[in-house]
Amino acid sequence: MPSDDMPFLRHLRLCNTAVVPGDRFPFSLGDKLAGWIDPAIADRLEQEGLGSRTKGFALANPAELEALGEKLAQEGFYRSHHELFDVMTDLDQPVIARIDRGALPLFGLVAIGVHMNGLVRKSDGLYLWTGRRARNKRLDPGKLDHLVAGGVPAGHSPAEALLKEAAEEASIGPELAAHAKEVGRILYALNRPEGLRRDILYCYDLFLPESFEPVAADGEVESFSLMKLEDVLALVRDTDEFKFNVNLVLIDLFLRHGLIDPHSAEGRALQNGLARGLSPASPGKEHVTVPA
């Protein structure tokens, strides 16, 4: 059991470990700051004539970012996902470029994902469908996950990406998935082995019939389980069984359904942290103070 008297806050702390700039270097697309360059590629970008460690880096033509990302993958700086993501300079800014999703952390660029709580209402309360990530997954193999979650590919809205992921990950048809309700979005910035993650998660709830049985269509999930929501809360409170960012979406769910008191000291800190992050991801972001 965690000794912290605010046990859920530890998940927010773990997802907000980035201090910007730290040892990273500013990266601009056009004339706007967009990201933070990892030291692992700084020398290579200097060779490309894109700036320096002392003055920062910039790509005058954002359309050239995709080709730059492909070149770095071919040279072994990261492992390509063969999936392009849209690139924007910050939250709620327009899309100005795209790059392979595997390169986003090296450039410290904003990435967008979708997470869906697959809920079932029974006579004895709420239940949540969870998935166990396949053991061969690149990130967080074997961890518990949402029924549906994934990144938003280039050219897709979050709602479109959710329909795509629902079909691929749990065989949920578009007619049923279209009933998912957007319930909020969560921000965090953390250091990961792959680099700086600056993620925005669009969160959805979908109430499923008791007769529903998920089927993994893409091989990314090894099994599904239907769990009572109170049991899910205990796992999040007491363990690290869930993939790191899934904990944040579940904490938001617990707050909305009163399993965590939103008016308590921890509840207020959680709500602030989920909405704004606990550390600034870019200049101008307000730093949220977290109780020690």
TrEMBL record:
Documented EC number(s): 2.7.6.2
Top-level taxon in the UniProt lineage: Bacteria
Keyword Hydrolase: yes
Signal peptide positions (record): none
PROSITE patterns attached to this UniProt entry: NUDIX (PS51462)
Domain Nudix hydrolase: 105-252
A molecular-function term among this protein's GO annotations: thiamine diphosphokinase activity
Xref: Pfam families: NUDIX
Keywords, alphabetical: Hydrolase, Transferase
Keyword set includes Hydrolase: yes
SUPFAM superfamilies: Nudix (SSF55811)
Protein name, UniProt field: NUDIX hydrolase
